[in-house]
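agent: user wants the full assembly modeled, not chains individually. Plan: 1) parse entity lines 2) check alphabet per entity 3) run joint structure prediction 4) return tokens. Steps 1-2 passed, two entities, 229 residues total. Proceeding.
--- entities ---
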Amino acid sequence: DTTVKQNPRYKLARVGKPVNLICSQTMNHDTMYWYQKKPNQAPKLLLFYYDKILNREADTFEKFQSSRPNNSFCSLYIGSAGLEYSAMYLCASSGTGSNTGQLYFGEGSKLTVL
Amino acid sequence: AQSVTQPDARVTVSEGASLQLRCKYSYSGTPYLFWYVQYPRQGLQLLLKYYSGDPVVQGVNGFEAEFSKSNSSFHLRKASVHWSDSAVYFCALSLTRNMGYKLTFGTGTSLLVDP
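--- prediction returned ---
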């Protein structure tokens, strides 16, 4: 099974409210990623976990948090959603051991902030 | 900082015609290069990758791409497209292949194949 699952698929949030997005994979991959995708823009890497080590991009450092309680799960947390957070959030995973450069992506979680 | 440019936001071709989707990158060295495809209502999937060696790399479903260091390009080609190739194609690069791949994506090219 090479599936990455994301929940929820659609999320409606009010400005100022928290948002929690969940991702899971069963491929025993050591790395899990979160990308943000807005219309007509490139997917933008927000952060990734290599094993238990969290790496956050400098320009999104303060805006997003994440946790990885075990190898299979990874969450993306927004403490106080703003209108600019409306986007598709893509989770992906990869296995360094295979060294293929292949990231496996989920179908995405579409967040709309009102 | 590195970047990826896909100059064509939308491309329309007739079924059976040949295809080239353009990708230019900006990086002083030789990055690891990828093409991903996103079919409707699906996640992104890897088409092919280039690390080193032969500049022409083969991918799935008859796709190939050619790396050119002199042109800083990694164009995607297919000899004869099928209607099922209609999708969004993303070019991407990574500077690392250990402890994770930090992919920098282009904005994508939406391909429509007329049946």
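agent: reporting back. Chain B has one domain: 3-114. Residues 24 and 73 of chain B are 4 Å apart (CA to CA).
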